[in-house]
């Protein structure tokens, strides 16, 4: 669904530790220090845009943002990040592999491509996935042994706050993706989920299915056509600006039922080596099933995170989060894979501020 632009030229930005206070669950219960980004960025890249009124949107600069949010953490040495208990406890998973992970990349084989999307039940999508453009959706990779774990209890928090997405592009093609709630009506995902450059731009509609488990939809679903992203993605197709928001109608405040994630802007040293979780709806597993994996962040650039967490097409937009004192803080939005590993758009101060604006605007 997207093309990567490679690594980016490093630019100087302010590195604060900022956390958005957790407000979810309403009803219950590395190898390299700093990488470089390719290309320049500007204030305009972070200006938000919407499919409703793209021409008249204002934006936020990445720079001297004041502290806004919950508690801050003292700066820790990168070597100590991996000692922090930040992972979800998923039954049957061998957590020792997180400490001994290898960096060998294994790209997903082409043979099971039909199985990825045939189970979606859309003949048009199956045909599309046989084409070169359709195969671009499969940029993520499985790294080494595939030890992802299926989430069976998707009606529990935080799994129910993660959404399976069925996307209808403006040109009529169909796609799948993942998103996650950060507020009553705001679902965050990858920019290339809401805005597809080679398929008509803004998506025609997206069906949001929280906590989906195969054919089971414990919280129903909602179809919407209201989206946000930033100019860096919609106008310039910059990998570092690949994030967006799906907004549900006023009468569909599903986040108040399923709960939602917190999110955080952490400094470089607080991210390197941090153990993080990723869960979403990959296309290489049975249709509509949620799968979780975890690893350490192995490389941090000013605007991206790189890790050896296994993923597949369909997981674009998945949350990458840390577990802290009973709360969940998203630190990145999963987008794609490359020769360096799978990666996420990092929640910098500007991304944090846009997420906060989208959350507060649509309560």
UniProtKB/TrEMBL annotation:
SUPFAM superfamilies: Trypsin-like serine proteases
Gene3D superfamilies named among the record's database cross-references: Trypsin-like serine proteases (2.40.10.10)
Pfam families assigned: Trypsin
Chain residue ranges for the region called Disordered: 1-72
Composition skew (Acidic residues), residue ranges: 35-47, 61-72
Main enzyme class: hydrolase
Domain Peptidase S1: residue ranges: 157-345
Compositionally biased spans, kind Polar residues: 48-59
Enzyme Commission code: 3.4.21.-
Keyword vocabulary terms for this entry: Hydrolase, Protease, Serine protease, Signal
Family stated for the protein in its record: Belongs to the peptidase S1B family.
The protein, known as: Serine protease
Native organism: Postechiella marina
Organism taxonomic ancestry: Bacteria, Pseudomonadati, Bacteroidota, Flavobacteriia, Flavobacteriales
